[in-house]
Amino acid sequence: MWRPLRNKNFRLLFIGRVVDQLGDAVSPAALALAIVAATRSSVDIAVVLVCSTLPKIALLPLGGVVVDRLGARRVALAAALVSCPAQLTIAVVLLGGRIALVPIAVASTVAGIAAGFDTPATLPLVVGTTETSERQGANATMSIAASATNLGGPAVAGLLIFTVGAGWAFVLDALTFLVSAGTLVALEFRGSPIARQSLREDLVSGWSEVRARTWYWTSLIGHGTWNFAAGMLLTTGPLIAVVHMGGRAVWLTALQAAGVGYLSGAFIAGRWKLRRAVLACNIAQLSFALPLVAFAFDAPAWLAVASYGLAMASLGFLNPVWETVVQQQVPASVLARVSSYDWLISLVGMPVGYVLGPILGRGFGYALPLSVAAGLVLVAGLVPISLAKVRAVRLAPASVQQ
Predict the structure, then answer these.
(1) 3-state secondary structure 90-124
(2) What is the pTM of this model?
């Protein structure tokens, strides 16, 4: 699993991305706590989250076209150089001692725009810095690092907040973008040039590649359903845990179990080579129904925590395996565009889940929306499993990969 790190170019990419992810894990926690301390308003937090999330989702298809046209390294470098001053702007506001929501929202919007271009560059960057036989190990290594930074980021944020102030978390985040930019400049990257055509033709050709693969678009519906259900659980689970399961410690323990589970799943993905990888991914995503049902019906706390950890272990396994299949099955010349639609379909349901969870919970009780979400997860996973075109997709042995 660690063999790709012997490759100098992937090692540079790995270092840059891990440092970048650490900053991204530190700054949201610091900003949320700073806003709550200053304004006591969850609405202000929601405004900032929307400003950073919506531009990213909206620009993903365009970002995929730009990455395929200009090259993943060039676009990722530009995104890092744009994100750095945006995070420094937030740092200046917070270090000034008075929370000004407008400049924070504007800077968050700029960072979200940059993320819309950087996200589709991820898979092409891995392809351009690794050999085909190293891809699954490389993807798993990146997932392990991401989950580790997600576990450690809030702790670093807390340390900075209680020592030097929340603003320094954004100084740190800005510096991580500079480190990432430096590694991108230093590595050698193998690109795949594409034929020149109009923007509309580029967008249509990327979508056509998705539609042409039944295993792909049917599985993406499942991914989007997972994230929709996850959005519902993230907004209703804390309240259920506090009111019905024993308090805040239950939810915090569930989050820690989720982090450890994701990390464990990524380790397994790096060591377990599966031929029927798409089938395995769809089976793995069924597990998210378990914590949804557990929280819906006020299960014992240990069962809710364990089921959440298991579901996130499945996600930690699913992500790198899925990325490896996509990198193998999709031509490199359209990989960023296809990846952008992948992210778009996968992520668009999460903010919907954020909104619907509390609304439906207040109107009908939390058991109904969470159990319906569990049913949707099961259906969205079982339908692809039933299709022969999904079961037929296999990862080729390393010796015949292209």
Answers:
(1) HHHHHHCCCCCHHHHHHHHHHHHHHHHHHHHHHHH
(2) 0.76
Dihedral angle sign, alpha carbons of residues 203, 209, 214, 218: negative
- pLDDT tens digits for 320-351? 888 888 888 888 888 888 889 998 898 888 88
- The least confident of 118-122, 218-222, 354-358 is 354-358
Q: Can you say whether residue 295 is alpha, beta or left, with left for phi > 0 and alpha for psi between -120 and 50 degrees?
A: alpha
* Residue among 15, 49, 25, 22 nearest 35 (CA): 49
Distance of CA 106 to the CA centre of its chain: 22
Token duo for residue 64: 């995929």
Q: Supply 24's token pair.
A: 């991204």
CATH code of the domain occupying 205-400: 1.20.1250.20
Using only C-alpha atoms, what is the Rg of the chain?
A: 21
- Identify the residue whose tokens are 């200009």: 70
Token pair for residue 132?
């085909």
- Domain spanning 3-185: CATH 1.20.1250.20: yes
Q: Which contacts (CB < 8 Å, 24+ apart) does range 36-41 have?
A: 38/98, 38/99, 39/99, 39/101
User: Tokens 């990390």 appear where?
Assistant: 263
Which residues, 6 or more positions from 78, have their beta carbon under 8 angstroms from its beta carbon?
A: 114, 117
Contact 304, 293 (CB under 8 A): no
Q: How many Cβ atoms are within 10 Å of 103's Cβ, its own excluded?
A: 14
Asked whether the beta carbons of 236 and 371 are under 8 A apart, the reply is no
- The amino acid at 45: I
Asked, colleague to colleague, whether 3-185 and 205-400 share their fold, the answer is: yes
Contacts of 50 (CB under 8 A, 6+ apart): 351
Does residue 400 register a pLDDT over 50? no
Tell me how far apart the alpha carbons of residues 219 and 221 are, in angstroms, rounded to a whole number. Answer: 5
Residue-range domain boundaries for the chain: 3-185, 205-400
Residues 6 or more apart whose Cβ sits within 8 Å of residue 104: 31, 48, 90, 93
HSE (side-chain half, CA atoms, 13 Å) at 122: 24
